[in-house]
């Protein structure tokens, strides 16, 4: 039931919010806030958004470090994995918005075939118990929990990239094929929930901490020189983690910089400003501090709270943007779609 509600909520919030951003091409979330809200309120909202992006990246850095240390090389110092990840993300996140956008597209194209291959192997594996999935599906009448709904809606949160990268959209931009969002969301929601149940059963599945890593290790390829699907999964997991942390560090950096009303964002920055290095380095140091403090239980607690707060923030952001769109329609002197991208990059 939580999945079903999350699909409806996630689809609604993502399509409505994306439609609102479409009305302000060339403007990121900070520019929209400064245009329609008092300066103090705009700065507070931008800072809140920056903290949410930064905390999400730090949580993924810890998860990546623990997963790679557990399955790739348990005898290796886990802080070495952390150092490699942090250095890569500091370098990637400090680039210009245009460079980060291109990097995300390239990494997605490289990762998609491997990810689809893992999903195909999961469905066609003869060890999958479809009866176990049907048993769990029979509990659809059970009352949902807010925590589960918030976690499931995270599958639809990719639209939040528009809060920053909408700056790169030219006037007259149209976001097409939004009907794909619920279809892709439904597929990945049921895949990520039911496939581990099919491999591990209805009782044991909740006992695993690294659930999808164990699930991938349950699959075997009978061709090629790599037999364990886990190795392929770790490659995909590494790419996805790098993409996510690069994006969150860059977005948090840009939002913190936008807390200054005098800041003028640029699509291309060459050479990279020192401020970019400083902000991303601070995020990296905070990642080390969090990894020193956290363990599996603390990280589970922090992640659950982050997912719930993120869901509330997304709904709040949707309502704010609807109010802004109403104000833009009400004021005949507002031309939000003009001038934003023209000034961007100068």
TrEMBL record:
The keyword Transmembrane helix applies. The keyword Transmembrane helix applies. Keywords: Membrane, Transmembrane, Transmembrane helix. It comes from the Bacteria. The chain crosses the membrane at residues 42-64, 76-94, 106-123, 135-159, 179-199, 231-256, 277-295, 307-328. This is APC family permease.
């Amino acid at each position: 039931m939580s999945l079903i509600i999350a699909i409806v909520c996630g689809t609604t919030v993502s399509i409505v919010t994306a439609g609102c951003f479409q009305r302000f091409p060339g403007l990121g979330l900070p520019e929209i806030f400064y245009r329609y809200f008092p300066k103090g309120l705009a700065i507070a909202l931008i800072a809140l958004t920056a903290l949410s992006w930064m905390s999400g990246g730090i949580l993924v850095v810890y998860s990546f470090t623990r997963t790679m240390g557990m399955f790739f090389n348990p005898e290796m110092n886990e802080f070495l994995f952390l150092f490699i990840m942090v250095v890569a993300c500091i370098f990637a996140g400090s680039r210009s918005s245009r460079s980060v956008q291109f990097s995300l597209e390239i990494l997605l194209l490289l990762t998609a075939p491997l990810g689809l291959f893992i999903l195909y192997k999961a469905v066609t594996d003869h060890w999958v118990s479809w009866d176990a999935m049907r048993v769990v599906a029979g509990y659809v009448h059970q009352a949902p929990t807010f925590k589960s709904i918030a976690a499931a809606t995270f599958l639809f949160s990719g639209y939040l990239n528009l809060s920053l990268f909408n700056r790169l959209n030219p006037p007259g931009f149209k976001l097409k094929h939004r009907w794909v969002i619920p279809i892709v969301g439904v597929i990945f929601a049921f895949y990520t929930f039911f496939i581990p149940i099919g491999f591990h059963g209805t009782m044991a599945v909740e006992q695993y901490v690294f659930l999808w890593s164990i699930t991938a290790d349950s699959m075997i390829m009978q061709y090629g020189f790599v037999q364990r699907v886990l190795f392929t999964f770790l490659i995909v997991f590494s790419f996805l983690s790098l993409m996510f942390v690069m994006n969150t560090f860059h977005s948090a950096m840009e939002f913190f910089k936008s807390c200054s009303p005098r800041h003028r964002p640029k699509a291309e920055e060459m050479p990279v400003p020192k401020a970019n290095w400083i902000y991303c380095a601070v995020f990296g140091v905070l990642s080390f501090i969090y990894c020193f403090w956290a363990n599996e239980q603390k990280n589970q607690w922090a992640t659950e709270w982050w997912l719930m707060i993120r869901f509330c923030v997304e709904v709040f952001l949707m309502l704010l943007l609807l109010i802004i769109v109403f104000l833009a329609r009400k004021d005949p002197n507002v031309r939000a779609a003009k001038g934003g991208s023209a000034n961007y990059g100068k």
